[in-house]
């Protein structure tokens, strides 16, 4: 394992540049994507090769839902297996990436509208490590997580993300990890392995989300409850949707927009992911 001493002062070298790191929203789907060789995990690996190597990774995961805002600030975040009913092989996975306490403090200082608590208990949940272990399999890049305050709405999270924009200038890759369409109550369990199978309503609203993202209509995406019944089916709870708000809030006017892993699975889930920049 890489020692923490190799990273403890790395923030001293995070000087602003004119180049912005891309921002990603990633549909992470089943935890099994963390260990299986799927078209989704292969694309994550390819993305890790395509974009500039980040100085650190900051993940906003659907699976760290808290009262208030927290940032992981430990030397080495633990690998959290926050799921059940999967093979032991998945529970055995460890992703020993270092943390970045100094960067956590810097990130907290950037958030002027909220007091962000430095957290030493959480770690990396499956919304983070199942994706990042494919992108950076050597676990040699510091990884932090920013929690989602469940007491706040979409506009709040969008605005909060804008306060983190300076991190893009310092080589920090920010990833929102969730799913645009995520309704586990309506999953077609008999079609779990049928990639690119989506109910009509799921495909329709997913296409609407993409159109709004492409056109830059963030207001409509923030006010998703006004997009009709299909949106409510896609977002029965906002935990997997709010990470998209962070990616949108971090977008610059000059960022190109591209989609990847743009498929539905099990009827009521979509893996559609977005790269800004």
Which helices and strands, and how do they pair?
Elements: E1 23-27, H1 39-50, E2 56-66, E3 69-72, H2 88-91, H3 101-110, E4 116-119, H4 126-135, E5 143-149, H5 154-162, E6 172-178, H6 200-215, H7 218-222, H8 229-234, H9 242-249, E7 257-260, E8 264-265, E9 269-270, E10 273-276
Parallel strand pairs: 1-6, 2-5, 2-6, 3-4
Antiparallel strand pairs: 1-10, 7-10, 8-9
Domain Extradiol ring-cleavage dioxygenase class III enzyme subunit B: 39-257
Family: Belongs to the DODA-type extradiol aromatic ring-opening dioxygenase family.
Protein name: 4,5-DOPA dioxygenase extradiol
The Rg value, from CA coordinates, equals 18 Å
Q: Total helix count?
A: 9
Number of strands: 10
CATH architecture: 3-Layer(aba) Sandwich
The domain count comes to 1
Briefly note the CATH topology name: Protocatechuate 4,5-dioxygenase, Chain B
**Low-confidence runs (pLDDT<50, min 5 residues)?**
1-9
Brief summary:
The chain is of the alpha/beta class. The protein has helices at residues 39-50, 88-91, 101-110, 126-135, 154-162, 200-215, 218-222, 229-234, 242-249, and strands spanning 23-27, 56-66, 69-72, 116-119, 143-149, 172-178, 257-260, 264-265, 269-270, 273-276. It has a single domain, classed as LigB-like (Protocatechuate 4,5-dioxygenase, Chain B), CATH 3.40.830.10.
Describe the structure.
The chain has helices at 39-50, 88-91, 101-110, 126-135, 154-162, 200-215, 218-222, 229-234, 242-249, and strands spanning 23-27, 56-66, 69-72, 116-119, 143-149, 172-178, 257-260, 264-265, 269-270, 273-276. It has a single domain, classed as Protocatechuate 4,5-dioxygenase, Chain B (3-Layer(aba) Sandwich), CATH 3.40.830.10. The strands form three sheets. It has a six-stranded mixed sheet with strand order 5-2-6-1-10-7, with helices on both faces. The chain contains nine helices and ten strands. The chain is globular. The longest helix is centred in the last third of the chain and has 16 residues, at 200-215. Helix 1 crosses helix 4 and helix 5 (154-162) packs parallel to helix 9 (242-249). The protein has 277 residues and is α/β, with parallel strands linked by helices. The two termini are 32 Å apart. Strand 8 (264-265) and strand 9 (269-270) form a beta hairpin. Residues 1-9 have low confidence and may be disordered.
């Amino acid at each position: 394992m890489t020692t923490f001493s190799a990273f403890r002062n790395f923030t001293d070298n995070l000087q602003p540049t004119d180049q912005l790191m891309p921002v990603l929203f990633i549909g992470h789907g089943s935890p099994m994507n963390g260990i299986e060789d799927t078209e989704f995990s292969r694309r994550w690996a390819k993305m890790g090769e395509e974009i500039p190597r980040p100085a650190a990774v900051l993940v906003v995961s659907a699976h760290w839902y808290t009262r208030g805002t927290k940032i992981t600030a430990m030397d080495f975040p633990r690998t959290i297996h926050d799921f059940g009913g999967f093979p032991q092989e998945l529970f055995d996975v460890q992703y020993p990436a270092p943390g970045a306490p100094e960067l956590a403090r810097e990130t907290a200082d950037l958030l002027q509208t909220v007091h962000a608590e430095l957290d030493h208990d959480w770690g990396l949940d499956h919304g983070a490590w199942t994706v990042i272990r494919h992108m950076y399999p050597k676990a040699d890049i510091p990884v932090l997580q920013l929690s989602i305050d469940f007491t706040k709405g979409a506009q709040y999270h969008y605005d909060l993300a804008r306060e983190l924009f300076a991190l893009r200038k310092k080589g920090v890759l920010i990833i929102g990890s969730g799913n645009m369409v995520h309704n586990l109550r309506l999953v077609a369990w008999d079609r779990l392995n049928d990639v690119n199978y989506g109910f009509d309503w799921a495909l329709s609203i997913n296409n609407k989300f993409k159109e709004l993202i492409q056109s830059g209509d963030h207001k409509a995406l923030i006010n998703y409850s006004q997009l009709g019944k299909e949106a409510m089916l896609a977002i029965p709870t906002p935990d997997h949707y709010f990470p998209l708000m962070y990616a949108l809030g971090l977008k610059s006017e000059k960022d190109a927009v591209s989609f990847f892993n743009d498929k539905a699975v099990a009827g009521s889930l979509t893996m559609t992911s977005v790269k800004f920049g």
